[in-house]
């Protein structure tokens, strides 16, 4: 009996050890990726429902791993958040996104607002200054940058977070609330956030139009956005039925595979040219 117990403990700690080794392997790899240029951004167009035109894009990070190929963010962002490395990843992403926006504008492409995801760990007192310096470095007007912030970010130390958001908004940079409805933000705080857009999470879009609860939640988010004079965008739109429901519900914008997957920079540029021609 004691032996079984001992075996169990040994097995468990070996398991933990493997988990830690895997984490350290990814962390070392990610540091290397940052200094070695293995990260890249894809751009997913955002469409205005009324006009059918591309009015923005979300920058989404990928890791071009020498052995594993293109690694999605779900496989390294959570770990980067746990270790704090996400701060460096975030600096790189903001820098790249602004550099790309400048290249597109210089190439004569109609300007669109480029959204960057910001995680809670990056949401510190130094963020507004960093955003401002980066915009200046690329000669980019603040109206072309948007930061997507998740509800969970807002829940740590709410007064401090509102202060940082106010500084960012004062720069003229747009803020949107990502994955809205999946966190625990109290509606009473919502009116105090200087945000422009609520983003309906894919976990709700997915059930439209068959799941009555998801439809009710989507409608509620749209109506909250309208009452608070915010715009509202639905992510993860994959079907014409979802689009039709969202259109009739008064949703402003959509993003999803129905229109486009996240694209490499060149492919996004091509999509923008067709957008103008359309
Ligand atoms: P998110 O911010 O909610 O981004 C939306 C995710 O949904 C993206 O996955 C996008 O490719 C995917 N998506 C868009 N339309 C559809 C659709 O119609 N169907 C389906 N099935 N998926 C769709 P991705 O690129 O794998 O990113 C996953 C998450 O990783 C993001 O979720 C975000 O939380 C995080 N992430 C991505 N890039 C960054 C970044 O630069 N910084 C930070 N901090 N997080 C990032
Ligand atoms: Ca996002
Ligand atoms: Ca989202
Ligand atoms: Ca989401």
TrEMBL record:
Domain called EAL: residue spans: 23-276
Residues passing through the membrane, by range: none
Protein name according to UniProt: EAL domain-containing protein
Organism whose genome encodes this protein: Duganella fentianensis
Lineage, uppermost ranks: Bacteria, Pseudomonadati, Pseudomonadota, Betaproteobacteria, Burkholderiales
Full protein stretch here: 410 to 687 of 694
């Amino acid at each position: 009996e004691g032996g079984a117990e001992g075996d169990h403990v040994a097995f468990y700690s070996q398991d933990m050890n493997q988990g830690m080794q895997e984490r350290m392997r990814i962390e070392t790899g990610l540091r290397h990726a940052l200094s070695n240029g293995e990260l890249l951004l894809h751009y997913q167009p955002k469409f205005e429902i009324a006009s059918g035109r591309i009015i923005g894009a979300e920058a989404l990070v990928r890791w071009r791993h020498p052995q594993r190929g293109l690694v999605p963010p779900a496989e390294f962002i959570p770990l980067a958040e746990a270790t704090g490395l996400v701060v460096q990843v975030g600096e790189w992403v903001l820098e790249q996104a602004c550099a790309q926006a400048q290249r597109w504008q210089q190439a004569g492409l109609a300007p669109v607002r480029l959204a960057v995801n910001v995680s809670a760990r990056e949401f510190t007192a130094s963020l507004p200054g960093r955003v401002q310096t980066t915009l200046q470095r690329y000669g980019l007007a603040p109206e072309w940058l948007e930061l997507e912030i998740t509800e969970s970010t807002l829940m740590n130390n709410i007064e401090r977070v509102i202060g940082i958001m106010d500084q960012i908004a004062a720069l003229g940079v747009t803020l949107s609330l990502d994955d809205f409805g999946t966190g625990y933000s109290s509606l009473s705080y919502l009116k105090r956030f200087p945000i422009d857009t609520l983003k309906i999470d894919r976990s709700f879009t997915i059930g439209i139009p068959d799941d009555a609860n998801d439809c009710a939640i989507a409608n509620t988010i749209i109506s909250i956005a309208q009452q608070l004079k915010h715009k509202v965008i639905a992510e993860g739109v994959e079907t014409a039925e979802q689009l039709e429901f969202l259109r009739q519900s008064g949703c402003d914008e959509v993003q999803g595979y129905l229109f486009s997957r996240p694209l490499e920079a060149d492919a996004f540029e091509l999509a923008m040219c067709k957008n103008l021609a359309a």
